[in-house]
Please model this.
Amino acid sequence: MLKSIPLNKLVASPRNVRKRRDPAADAELKASIASLGLLQNLVVRAGKKGLYEVEAGERRRSSLLELAAEKVVEKNMPVMCLVLDGDETEVREATLAENFHTLKLNPADEALGFASIIETGATPDDVARRFGLTVRFVEGRLRLASLAPVIFEALGAGDITLDMAKAYGATSDHMIQTRVFEEVTESCYRATPDSIRRMVLNSSVRGSDPRAQFVGKDAYLEAGGRIDRELFDNDDDESWLDVALLEGLASTKMEEAAKAAADEQGLAWVTPTLANYISHDLVEGLHRVPVPARVYSDDELARLDDLDTAYDVQAAILEDEDSSEEAIRSAEAEIVRIDTEVAAIRDRTPELDADTKRDCGMVLTLGRDGVPVLQPQYFTKERVVSPDDDGTMEVASTGPADKPNRLGLSQRLADELSMQRRDVLALHVANDPALAMDLFVFTLADADSYKFGGSPGLNLNGRAPGGPAFGFEASDAPATAALAELRSGLNESWRSGDTISERFDLFRSLDDEHRHAWLSWVVARTCEASLNGIGNRLNPFHDHLAGLIGFDMAAWWRPTAANYFDRVSKAAILDALAEVGGPTLASRFASSKKGELAASAERIFAGNFIAEAEVKEAALRWLPAPMQFTSAQPTGDAEKSADSEQPSSGSEEAVAPENVDVELAA
Model:
């Protein structure tokens, strides 16, 4: 029932489904309430001591409290509320429905609404103040209302985006807007806001336009393009009339050029644009990759000196009043040649190593002369380590507190290790349906809690997180291979259904064993990458899960030259050798070169060396600190399902003697 309740009798409900706030949207709501009053009732439930808990409308209540503190409204002002009397389930459904079915206004509807208020005599400043918006935002919506009717209707219907509508508004001429809209609609070219803006600002294109030079007249005419040429026009002055066609041809050719550039440069991708600069939308969400400072070779430095001297000679000829016209023309041409060669040396695109470039991309722009230009800036979708950073990640030490921890990992190695560690955990979750079920239900239930804490480190939406190391797959790792085998063994007979209803019924007809296997798989594959480290890879909950399962991490992952030793410092390898074989073993390899040391370490930690049993056991159990699950200990039955095919290394921690005679096996 509806009831008027004093504001000071309303309190927040811990069951309210909205947990996150938007300060800008809250400010708009507050301004609206101050100007127009409360236009929508709150949804409440009777609580203790005569108070009412707000199940839906907490943002409105918070805004009213702020206004009361500012003495804009009374602190006990009456607030119209819908009082719920149902059980817990009905209350939660009501608060979710009140928020879930809220539909944001279409930009076209916003424009008409603002325009109707302006027609009553209000100003854009008045509208902005009443709705808690900026004047620029209101004026932008008002400009949308002045678009050509066909474009405004397309915006309202969702056929074009807001950015496209703004691009059409670059001109106020409805005829041009309509003509460009029809060209874009009828062509197979996929228009963008930038291309639409260019088209409305240029009803035709000159032959000197970069797009025209890039495509070429023959290709344009062959595709059906039209050219309007007056009596005294040259090739640069003639008008190319079919702008949409030209845009499409240029875009297709730029995409081909971008693909060729990516292959040639060894890049993950190259984004093409017909603009002559890198716009913000092209690189939004990407990260600039810091490039080492340009280092010139001795030959390049010597050549630059020679060119500087040659430039001075030619400049002297130009400054000499007695120089002949022929000498001046020759000097001018030589200076142009010198400048071109100097630019070729100094402006060369900064280079990254091949491994790094494979994860990076660049932007290909169209120069003013119609020639594509690969901009000398690298971008990546991953986090970038700055040049001032030492490129290492600090990790938790498992040794004595007073022993310095010299283990440092590059960001790429940390990402790869975290993904391999994730696969080991995911495999064991996949082999424990009971745990997977509990984990699945708990994670979803705990997300509804109003108590904020650490993340469980799972992404329960049914899809597998991609992992931080772009393009990396540990196909030779035992856990990764076992996961692939497990996936291939799932019963997929239910996929034969043609409709989702048929597939659902077929899935329900599977026996418990097969449905439990699917449950374990979909939960296990949501495990995110983590490391036993300090920083954004640390996830104590993963350690807790590993402890509940009880598996032997050393039986599933061993350090090799490729996956670890080649990627860490020589000091870190020697420290590892000292941990399992004492100072004697470490000193034996102290003078080895890095490559030889990494290969030897791989054999030692795989157990392929002659030594006392306790030393070999310690080597087989050794793991770098980031790869350890600190709570995981093998515990009999808990590890049977996952570890039955893996060699056991024992459950006791082996302590290497200080001095042992270790000899590598041949």
Remarks:
- Confidence is low (pLDDT under 50) at residues 384-406, 447-453, 632-666.
- The radius of gyration is 34 Å.
